[in-house]
Specification:
By secondary structure, this protein is an alpha/beta fold. The chain contains 7 helices and 6 strands; from the N terminus they run αβαβαβααβαββα.
């Protein structure tokens, strides 16, 4: 019997074993939180300060694709942060001035709902990275890190920029880093694109409809988040 001891053969075999173990472990971890047959909720959070614009539109595409994976079990909701008062200083233990409105408190029940199995965070690209609003939101997730309440939820990232290569991937990485810190299962956009996440181009007319390549990544991300969430729920 011949054995492939080449570097490629060894790495291929090792990767197959590791992948099989990871899938099995992930399935076991998600089994308790969302038994078979229960509703699966996917949230999308828009970190754009401009309400209802291209980031929200791109996330709506994600959610539509996520819903299509299992229309009977999957529910979706878009949370638009535009216009909300979310201060990241609270995550550092700094109290807000008396009378200061804190809109993040109203979001906590939505995010911690056990039915939520996937969260997609999207941001426009400002100076090569996420917006301050998106960053403040991710910093406020500190409240969940204390108990790892978001552990094993599926996370995804989306970025919209004013140019085809305008900093989308750096923005994705920044968002993903925050999700990793919550012990979430972070995924990219699925096949056939299989990149780090959804990357779209705003053509300066607040219209992503003409960006077929970007729309494809948004659809693939939504579908991938839903597929993995359903797998973890032992569908």
């Amino acid at each position: 019997m011949e054995t492939d001891l080449s570097r490629r053969g060894f790495l291929g075999a090792a990767g197959a074993v590791a992948a099989a173990g990871a899938v099995a472990g992930a399935s076991a971890a998600g089994a308790e939180a969302a038994p078979q047959g229960k509703k699966i909720k996917i949230l999308a959070v828009s970190g754009s300060p401009r309400k209802g614009k291209t980031t929200a539109a791109a996330l709506a595409v994600c959610l539509e694709a996520a819903k299509a994976v299992d229309p009977e079990r999957i529910e979706t909701e878009l949370i638009d942060l535009a216009g909300l008062n979310i201060n990241g200083l609270v995550a550092a233990g700094i109290e807000l001035p008396p009378g200061h409105k804190d809109d993040f408190l109203a979001l906590e029940p939505k995010l911690s709902d056990p039915a939520v199995r996937g969260i997609i965070v999207g941001s426009p690209v400002y100076f090569g990275d996420m917006t301050s609003l998106c960053k403040a939101f991710l910093e406020r997730l500190m409240v969940f890190k204390k108990t790892l309440a978001l552990s094993n939820r599926v996370g995804g990232a989306l970025a919209v920029a004013g140019a085809r290569n305008g900093g989308q991937e750096n923005t994705l990485r920044s968002i993903q880093a925050a999700l990793f810190a919550q012990e979430m299962v972070v995924v990219g956009d699925g096949r056939p694109t299989c990149h780090c996440g959804a990357t779209l181009w705003n053509n300066a007319k607040d219209d992503i409809a003409q960006d077929a390549a970007g729309i494809a990544t948004a659809k693939n991300l939504g579908r991938r988040v839903a597929e993995v969430a359903r797998m973890l729920a032992r569908a």
